[in-house]
């Protein structure tokens, strides 16, 4: 009895430590929301008054964007090589390189160094969403990091990147060790933090899953999603208390720095606590340290069960993985489109730009920050509701209901802004949208992605996750271009972008209804049979 008690206590403590990675994931994702206006004032507005600085910044923006596109291109080229025969893959990569390179060169690189409205909004959008470039890179590194340095050490690396990003983002001028100006320094440090987010998003749930006893694994892995939305809510409170009662000038000069610097506290705690938790038994066994693996397994599962689990772990290494198209294109496309729609419905626009959206509705800075706390609270409560109901209610129903409610609320919000019926109606529509997403497409997409891919092609999930971060980058980057475009604002008064997201919500619901199977109650073997039949 005493052993079981120690086991339960240990596994919960380990889960809490690993979930700090999820909390930092949410914290880093949402910290930008309170700083968008100040970042615009500090970095973008100054370009309008200094043509030399603007020209220099535009050149550096082109360089850093080209490097980011090259890095993402290499990542997706590696995916193409895993889907197709080498000769076919090279033809596809060359075709994309020539066509994409030509468009990028003539439509962007050759543009003069003049700060046009679209270029200004593009720089702002990329500055806000630049961490997502790092997320794509970090998520793609996750599998290699897990198998080379280990799950726990990968999380330690993630914590160090969080810490470096927190300090560098808050004082980019003092920590500028790069051949560029302060704007470039800020973007690079945000990308560094993004790599930490990408690693944590991949490694934290893997670490928890490998440490948790089978009977409570689902609950403990779900705790990571809860930690992510908790991190978002915590940073909304932090941002509110930083700006509360302060002048606009102070926020633009100092307040935004404290927002980014505040991340160093949970990052430091995460780093320190990780040194007190063990490496996973699976990694220890992979590296030939069966004795150490047995110690951990005995502590968490009891000596008798530990021997059985160790035998299962050793047997799992002998299973061969199949080609990524062993079950045809259908399952691959379904997984990728799920990831794309999760972002194209516009959730991260709300999470990143919430204070600016509320200020656009006529609210003061303090009030708009307070509204983001309500957004975070609704997000957390309905995520908990989804975790509690997904196994009973079914994945497909939750997703379709979520799509319908998101479509109604986003299209309604677009009309509220277009007709200038702002204030309470607009706020209620936004909260309705958050609630619908939080109990459907937020957590349930991850559940579906973990279930639809058969074990033999589990690696395809890395493609879906990378595409999800890429879709997030596209949506977050393009929002300022639409929302701040003078012609669109004059015609639609900020409502245009929300109609786009509303249409995407409709399409997402139709996609779920027509193409996504219900996975509730199905074993992974059932899923294999299903995809074989659909081949």
Automatic annotation (TrEMBL):
<dbReference type="InterPro" id="IPR003663">
    <property type="entry name" value="Sugar/inositol_transpt"/>
</dbReference>
<keyword id="KW-0813">Transport</keyword>
<feature type="transmembrane region" description="Helical">
    <location>
        <begin position="123"/>
        <end position="142"/>
    </location>
</feature>
<dbReference type="InterPro" id="IPR005829">
    <property type="entry name" value="Sugar_transporter_CS"/>
</dbReference>
<feature type="transmembrane region" description="Helical">
    <location>
        <begin position="186"/>
        <end position="208"/>
    </location>
</feature>
<feature type="transmembrane region" description="Helical">
    <location>
        <begin position="369"/>
        <end position="388"/>
    </location>
</feature>
<feature type="transmembrane region" description="Helical">
    <location>
        <begin position="154"/>
        <end position="174"/>
    </location>
</feature>
<feature type="transmembrane region" description="Helical">
    <location>
        <begin position="88"/>
        <end position="111"/>
    </location>
</feature>
<feature type="transmembrane region" description="Helical">
    <location>
        <begin position="255"/>
        <end position="277"/>
    </location>
</feature>
<feature type="transmembrane region" description="Helical">
    <location>
        <begin position="499"/>
        <end position="516"/>
    </location>
</feature>
<dbReference type="InterPro" id="IPR050820">
    <property type="entry name" value="MFS_Sugar_Transporter"/>
</dbReference>
<feature type="transmembrane region" description="Helical">
    <location>
        <begin position="59"/>
        <end position="81"/>
    </location>
</feature>
<dbReference type="Pfam" id="PF00083">
    <property type="entry name" value="Sugar_tr"/>
</dbReference>
<feature type="transmembrane region" description="Helical">
    <location>
        <begin position="427"/>
        <end position="448"/>
    </location>
</feature>
<protein>
    <submittedName>
        <fullName>D-xylose transporter XylE</fullName>
    </submittedName>
</protein>
<feature type="domain" description="Major facilitator superfamily (MFS) profile">
    <location>
        <begin position="14"/>
        <end position="520"/>
    </location>
</feature>
<dbReference type="InterPro" id="IPR020846">
    <property type="entry name" value="MFS_dom"/>
</dbReference>
<keyword id="KW-0472">Membrane</keyword>
<feature type="transmembrane region" description="Helical">
    <location>
        <begin position="220"/>
        <end position="243"/>
    </location>
</feature>
<keyword id="KW-1133">Transmembrane helix</keyword>
<feature type="transmembrane region" description="Helical">
    <location>
        <begin position="400"/>
        <end position="421"/>
    </location>
</feature>
<feature type="transmembrane region" description="Helical">
    <location>
        <begin position="460"/>
        <end position="479"/>
    </location>
</feature>
<dbReference type="InterPro" id="IPR036259">
    <property type="entry name" value="MFS_trans_sf"/>
</dbReference>
<comment type="similarity">
    <text>Belongs to the major facilitator superfamily. Sugar transporter (TC 2.A.1.1) family.</text>
</comment>
<dbReference type="InterPro" id="IPR005828">
    <property type="entry name" value="MFS_sugar_transport-like"/>
</dbReference>
<feature type="transmembrane region" description="Helical">
    <location>
        <begin position="12"/>
        <end position="39"/>
    </location>
</feature>
<feature type="transmembrane region" description="Helical">
    <location>
        <begin position="324"/>
        <end position="354"/>
    </location>
</feature>
<keyword id="KW-0812">Transmembrane</keyword>
